Hints:
Chain A is an alpha/beta fold. Helix content of chain A is 43%, strand content 13%.
Amino acid sequence: MITEKRIALKNVGKYNVSDINEYLKIGGYKNVEKALRINPNEIIDLIIDAKLRGRGGAGFPTGLKNKFTNQAVCERCIQKFLVCNADEGEPGTFKDRIIMEQDPHALLEGMIIAAYAIGATKGYIYIRGEYTESVRMLRIAVQQASEKGFLGKNIFNSGFDFGIEIKLGAGSYLCGEELTLLESIEGKRGYPRIKPPFPAEKGLFGMPTLINNVETFSHLPYIIEYGAEHYRAMGTPNSPGTKIFTISGDVNKPGYYETTLGITLRQLIYDFGGGIKNNKNIKAVLLGGAAGTFVDESVLDTPMGYDTLKEKGAVLGSGAIMVLSEDRSVFDMAYSVLEFFKHESCGKCVPCRIGTTQLVRLMNEAKNNSGNRKEILNQLIYEADYMAKNSLCPLGQSPIMPLRSIKQFFENQF
Amino acid sequence: MDTMAVLKEFKPEKDNMLNILHAIQNNNPQNYLTTEDIKLVASYLNTTYSAVYGVVKYYSMFSVKPRGKYVIRVCKSPVCHMVSTKTIIDEIKNNIGIGIGETSNDLLFTLESSECLGHCAKAPVMMINDKVYKELDALKIKNIFQSIRMNEQNK
């Protein structure tokens, strides 16, 4: 029987979240103390060596991001910032919510370690406004950590100062995109910025900024404790470590499961997810959220990793696994996904603003004229491809992914 | 509490914009931001009315129109959609008589749809103000609104 391997969720259920003393009894903040005695550059090397990749979806090497931000130099840079992206809005994804609600201190620990490594003195956690319980738990955690001196001046007598502020989003999926998120923290509309410059160079208020996802930060205390080699030994060579998968849809045991990368989709769905409801067959799995890919049974035995899935035309993304049984319609799900993009397009750049509307219009056409659907699918892909090539930010670049995967796996069922 | 008192709880810095707007809106029993609120925020943060108004209109959680005491947000993201968003919205309509985007005449409820609320393992879900309601069905929806109505009558 396959079991979970928990890193980001290591302490979930093991302490009363609103009492930091309980957390300290199970070894809380000892890894921060350990980290603050190491040279910051050594911590960055450790993260690079562990080959940790961003758990928000893009899978960029975390250590390199740290290094770039650490090395950033500019004349007017009076301060560096650390930002935690907790604007979890990718449909089908709720891993960060579990961390924030049930082990917020692991996130704070990871943030303190990262801030020390890059030399940031101020940190922000940007949480979507709908996550009211996460906000509540994090506020308690930040306050208690401050009272204990884990946040504030001269943490563990290291001479290092660091404070965290919590900022609320207000219902914009796009603000989960890192540069848009920075605009939002600055009190502006959530419009993406042109990049480069990247945040490591010019981020929040024009200062060098490191932005990582909640789950990514939560891996840092573990890496400090056990070292890079131990971490790298889990998972696959290109995608080491663990990942939280959130399984939803037509499975018997939907929920969140953290396990080493390299596990197969079949194991996730059948061993963790308890198989398909009413013993039905799988029709499709939407992997990675709306900005993800539909796959069929041929991908069930592919090891889950950033590169292994890419080879099959799929993505790991945020770890969302939405399962559709044989009774469901891929077309209907695609419709919902494209409507989502239309609603969330900010309207700053034309290809996305008009493109997302056009995609829904084409879907309506397909709905009303089923004989012509194959041609419409080609048209959808043509438009989405144009958007991907000409849009400023990942939102406009995303609809091509589900559409292309439909063409690859479900052309006959569209 | 008046708007000014809410404002004073925050430092007059632009990165407090969204937190301030949330606090003012939550402080209004009708769950919205008035023109006067927006003007006050603009002057407090030393920015223009249009800049604040633009922010308010951009983010879907803010409203410039009065809403009900209970703002209902039904998740319509793919997983909830697949399971039954439409039935849920119909069921809510059966109970409180309003559709998406509408406010009930007694100013008790406003019904909105929302993107993924992050409770996909317990779809379909909705939020009423700060509280999440999961694994909804007709009976649960009926009970939820019945208990809200009872609470209101007993006040």
